[in-house]
Amino acid sequence: MGDLIGAVVESELYHIRRADFERVARLNASAPAIGALYADMARLNALYMIAKAGSGHIGSSFSALDIVTYLYLQEMKGPGDVFFSSKGHDAPGLYAVLIAQGVLPEEKLHVLRRLEGLPGHPDIHVPGLVTNTGSLGMGVSKAKGMVESARAKGEAARIFVMTGDGELQEGQIWESLVSAANRGMDEITMIVDHNKFQSDYAVSKTSDLGDLGAKFASFGWHVVRVDGNNHEALKQCFEDLRGVSGIPKVVIADTIKGKGVSFMEGTSIDSDVDMFKFHSGAPSADQYQRAVEEIESRIAEKLAELGAEPIKVAVEDRPKIIPPAGEQKRLFPAYTKALLAQAAKRKELIALDADLILDMGLIEFRDAYPERFIECGIAEQDMVSQAGGMALTGMLPVVHSFSCFLSTRPNEQIYNNATEETKIVYVGGLSGVIPAGPGHSHQSVREISALGGIPGMVMVEPCCPEDVAPLFDWCVDDHDGPSFLRLASMPYATSAAPPANWRPRKGEGYEVRAGKDGAIIAAGLLGVAEALNAADILAKRGLEIAVIALPWLNVIDAAWIADVAARYPLIATVDNHYRTGGQGTMVLAAIAEHAKARPRCVSIGLEAVPPSGRNDEVLAATGLDGASIARRIESLHGA
Amino acid sequence: MGDLIGAVVESELYHIRRADFERVARLNASAPAIGALYADMARLNALYMIAKAGSGHIGSSFSALDIVTYLYLQEMKGPGDVFFSSKGHDAPGLYAVLIAQGVLPEEKLHVLRRLEGLPGHPDIHVPGLVTNTGSLGMGVSKAKGMVESARAKGEAARIFVMTGDGELQEGQIWESLVSAANRGMDEITMIVDHNKFQSDYAVSKTSDLGDLGAKFASFGWHVVRVDGNNHEALKQCFEDLRGVSGIPKVVIADTIKGKGVSFMEGTSIDSDVDMFKFHSGAPSADQYQRAVEEIESRIAEKLAELGAEPIKVAVEDRPKIIPPAGEQKRLFPAYTKALLAQAAKRKELIALDADLILDMGLIEFRDAYPERFIECGIAEQDMVSQAGGMALTGMLPVVHSFSCFLSTRPNEQIYNNATEETKIVYVGGLSGVIPAGPGHSHQSVREISALGGIPGMVMVEPCCPEDVAPLFDWCVDDHDGPSFLRLASMPYATSAAPPANWRPRKGEGYEVRAGKDGAIIAAGLLGVAEALNAADILAKRGLEIAVIALPWLNVIDAAWIADVAARYPLIATVDNHYRTGGQGTMVLAAIAEHAKARPRCVSIGLEAVPPSGRNDEVLAATGLDGASIARRIESLHGA
């Protein structure tokens, strides 16, 4: 424990002011000594931001922070010098440095993952950030585009682009290396934050990348290797690189995930066995305290060694977390159970995952059926085409990832599989606009439009835990083709439930609340819950609005919708998805085509890229909360 | 000239019967001698199929045929032995061998690219074909899935998967190599048909892949190199490979694109300069004659050397080509002109291409602005993210590929760019169901659904050459965000034309034919032309149907559609696209939401994966020809 602030208190959070960073940067000491101290100060602030936000990527922020600090303090001095992180998970660490450097206003320290604050992944609307990242593998390609621009304008450019090591599993990385070498792009320095861990496990355990240096060299890049948490070594490395021209450069930086807090460090666990615990999420209060103590002690020691004044850290009350009202229902436990039940019945069922075993509820499956679990790493295209090969040869693949990635990265591969008319179940997690903290790279609000037009593809979304097994079973047992199970990951309060002994009928919904003045048609945990909230609000204003849960996202039964249209004078659709091409578009088109009755219709959904923020803030901002939905319906009813 | 058939006559086509292949396979000669002869016989038949079909990939069929022949005659004898081509372009050569082997019925020789015949790219509905290919880069992934299935079932498997060399520019290839090595998949032998040319130019000129052997070795594969047109060498190579276990194997087969016909061979041109002329398309009658003479001579010589009876080739009349009626309008010359005009005005305009410079009408642009033309190779994800980097730094990228690839392979990358709210124009060629010869991997009928939901994205499609420049100019000058210009590549007769001095107004169409009994709303060269044909047919039956060209694919103006809905008792939408998520879905949803009037509505479009075939056959089979459209409308009107 350092002597900076006295005891670390559970009800408090701590950060270092910008003035202290400025003072430290001016100390009469070696650049590496200052760099190491500065990086630790940024670690404390990154931890502050994450603890205050309630989520964020500690592991990668900490592994990368020495490199980021080195680049901003020592390397990036020219007008065309640019740094960005392709993985983007390390945003809190980067923000801490940008705030310390005065690129970002100091007050932004307090608004990580808040509306109008700092998004969970980089976005160009934040000063100092040059490109949107968080979707992996795009960084070198983007850097190349920036170099082409600079060359076209005759301007200087040095682009430092950081990637993860797990990120190197994405094919786009290797795709992008080729022309950088052919075009002699020495303007690019790629830095692999080689912290040896990815989302769940060690890279070597997930999908071992073997000899990275040989790979990059074979693609025509100049390769150097460095201890990425050592400021002396970083200085030597980047100084040497200035002499290398005519060829793009890659720095394989050996780092430690969670570097700087002993119990968070990847090296503290058995990399052959253990899951890394600090990839995302927030530390517990106890973990936070212990981490602060460690970092502070080191800062105090370093300051003392340099003969500098101690830092008086700023203290803030830890924000009270108000738990959301009502019982928070979760879909994933129900999914895990449904998957295990089908696996017990069908020995041909095989599950594929792309480095999200924990989030996708697959740990029990892997432990029960290790021979039928294929961990593909962050390689969605490869995963989906593997599933295609399996399905052609008698297996029943169930393919898992976050929806934002699964519906888009392997889009052509899913279509190719569909042209083979095989049965494959795609299961997408983290669907919808919340959790809103991670920002638009992870908010999946485009699946229906991205995949819904594929012939034979049926997309379904449960609105409550009770719906999960019937819908998954329908995909497995009743449907002869590809399907997509869209699952919300965020727990949410809902009173929605299917009728007793409900059996899904393709294209048909069920009423979860009666009403005569109109009906809201919606899908999913959030969509139906907020539709019900809207109906509650409207009931108080004298409008009786029914709520219909329609689990079918891209298939609407003609007779069913004609009947629904005949029963209500007003129909509103609510999409936890972009309005264009969402379920509402499908419902409204079906009404126009199949219904004799013609109710007033309105479709409610996202109109623009959703912001990052606290869930309640973002729902209100995007009009997806019950109050906003109620206002829209009331205005239409009155019109 | 051989003595097999006498003079080669311009009005005739020639092929070799299966019985002759069987006889040759039984000759008392060395396996390599038989293999070389058999491959040449298959070349003659592949050429026959392509000449009869009027299109097909000669270059890669010929480069790969010695390998394919070797595998089927000598190597693939086990129950789990499987061959497929990941590139799929070499289908005619493969079909020729499968017919010779009796896997495919002999009569299929005559129906390449015909409905119910042999599709332009492989499809599992054809006996002997195990997976659908033609979308590049998926082969090794699919092979891995097949291996996992075999392992799960305890069955033997040897998967021989052929790729192109240009295909290695796709990131998925490298993504797929990693786990094959980690899982010790010695069941897989990848064969690179290293013929040094891709669609347009030499691989080295397009996007040089450098040292292939070093690359594969660095990914943990066992690498061998062989003369892929030499049967002795192939025998030695594959025999040696049987001794290699515990590691996946790659054969880098040096081949000659167009091998076997001197003037078609890649080695006959300057690979630093010249475009390869025989990638796809059909030979001219003269080229066909000369090619047949060469191949026949060699077959005759080889037979004579082996002391075998000559072959009497079968002679068929060359099918008469009936040119389609009416002046065939082309969109691409108008596009090239529009692009050049904008490039002259805007020095920030930069064009990117993915190995389709000829098809995408870019040769003039490249010659006029070489410093603003970026050839990306077959690397759509990299291309799109490069465009993102350029757009962020002040350039105006115009990104080109076939729509089938551009809308799907870089789907997440296009979305990522869109979240940056930059202006990028995506231009997709080969859009729609025709040309129907290449089959579903190339028939792009899913762009609107795949991309239309992206916020800010505006998709437009001209229905005549006159519309091209106004719409492209709108994307460049008037729209502040991403846009997608969907272009048909197939020339088509149409009488559609915009009003004099037409200026595009977002979301609004224009009438190309008046009528009071209903209206067809359609987009594109084919869609509007066939809508007009339908209106002609219906006029003869007393129905006056208007035709409205609506160039906006995913954006419908509310007031405009309300007005249209008020003017017609019946509205039919026609999509050269899947019905679900197509323009029709957008139009119908807009009617339900915005129109007070409620016309009868029907949406017409593709309901299933379209077949490969002759254009007229496929239009009739999919209900997109005027006659089918007219029937649908008449039945609805009468209902």
Walk me through the structure.
The structure is a homodimer of 639-residue chains. Chain A is an alpha/beta fold and 639 residues long. Chain A folds into three domains: 12-317, Rossmann fold (3-Layer(aba) Sandwich), CATH 3.40.50.970; 328-493, Rossmann fold; 510-638, Rossmann fold. Chain A is 40% helix and 16% strand. In chain A, the strands form five sheets. A six-stranded parallel β-sheet of chain A has the order 10-9-11-12-14-13, sandwiched between helices. In chain A, helix 12 (363-368) links the parallel strand 9 and strand 10 (373-375). In chain A, helix 13 packs parallel to helix 15. Chains A and B meet through helix 5, helix 6, helix 8, helix 13 and helix 15 of A and helix 5, helix 6, helix 8, helix 13 and helix 15 of B.
Quick overview:
The structure is a homodimer of 639-residue chains. Chain A has 639 residues and is an alpha/beta fold. Chain A contains 22 helices and 20 strands.
